[in-house]
């Protein structure tokens, strides 16, 4: 593994963030439409989203504080370009996400992911990092594709 410099993204990184979302292979056309809206609103200064990215553009993560909660943050997306997988980018991003949530006053971090086989490596990473499987919502992402929520105290 190599060291990866993770930094807060800026509005000038919007195109790179969308490129990472698309290149991660985690999203279909509807999810990409949603992310275009998310990134556009964030780049315009709307909302409380935090985007972090690998300085080389290999990966990115999106998190935000959960509304109407007591210092709970949620990482909504972490993605790494296929060519950069298994190089430590996801781990570096997760470290940075945890630090950003802590610095924002967070006491709990949630991570939502899919229960599909393609997402097994992500679920294994979260478990290895001490996240507990908190909830499963059956069929959330479609027939037979559950939403799995992981939780960790910060």
Proper CATH architecture: 3-Layer(aba) Sandwich
Q: Name the CATH superfamily classification.
A: Gcn5-related N-acetyltransferase (GNAT)
Main sheet makeup: 7 strands, mixed
Poorly predicted sequence stretches spanning 5 or more consecutive residues? none
Annotation keywords:
alpha+beta, Aminopeptidase, 4 helices, 33% strand, 32% helix, 154 residues, seven-stranded mixed β-sheet
What does this structure look like?
This protein has one domain (6-153): Aminopeptidase, CATH 3.40.630. A hairpin with a 2-residue loop joins strand 6 and strand 7 (145-153). The protein is globular and about 35 Å long. The two termini are 25 Å apart. It has a 7-stranded mixed β-sheet with strand order 1-2-3-4-5-7-6. It contains 4 helices and 7 strands, in the order E-H-H-E-E-E-H-E-H-E-E. The chain is of the alpha+beta class.
Detail the topology: elements first, then pairings.
Elements: E1 6-8, H1 14-23, H2 29-43, E2 50-54, E3 59-65, E4 72-80, H3 89-103, E5 108-114, H4 120-128, E6 132-142, E7 145-153
Parallel strand pairs: 4-5
Antiparallel strand pairs: 1-2, 2-3, 3-4, 5-7, 6-7
Provide a brief overview of the structure.
With 154 residues, the chain is an alpha+beta fold. The chain contains four helices and seven strands; from the N terminus they run βααβββαβαββ.
């Amino acid at each position: 593994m190599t060291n990866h410099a993770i930094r807060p993204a800026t509005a000038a990184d919007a195109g790179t963030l969308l490129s990472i979302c698309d290149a991660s292979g985690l999203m279909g056309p509807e999810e990409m439409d949603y992310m275009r809206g998310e990134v556009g609103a964030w780049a315009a200064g709307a909302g409380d989203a935090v985007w972090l990215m690998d300085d080389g553009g290999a990966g990115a993560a999106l998190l935000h504080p959960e509304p109407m909660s007591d210092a709970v943050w949620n990482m909504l997306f972490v993605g790494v370009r296929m060519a950069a997988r298994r190089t430590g980018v996801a781990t570096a991003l997760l470290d940075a996400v945890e630090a950003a949530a802590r610095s924002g006053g967070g006491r709990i971090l949630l991570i939502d992911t899919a229960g599909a086989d393609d997402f097994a490596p992500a679920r294994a990473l979260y478990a290895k990092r001490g996240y507990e499987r908190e909830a499963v919502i059956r069929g959330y992402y479609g027939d037979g594709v559950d939403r799995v929520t992981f939780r960790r105290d910060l």
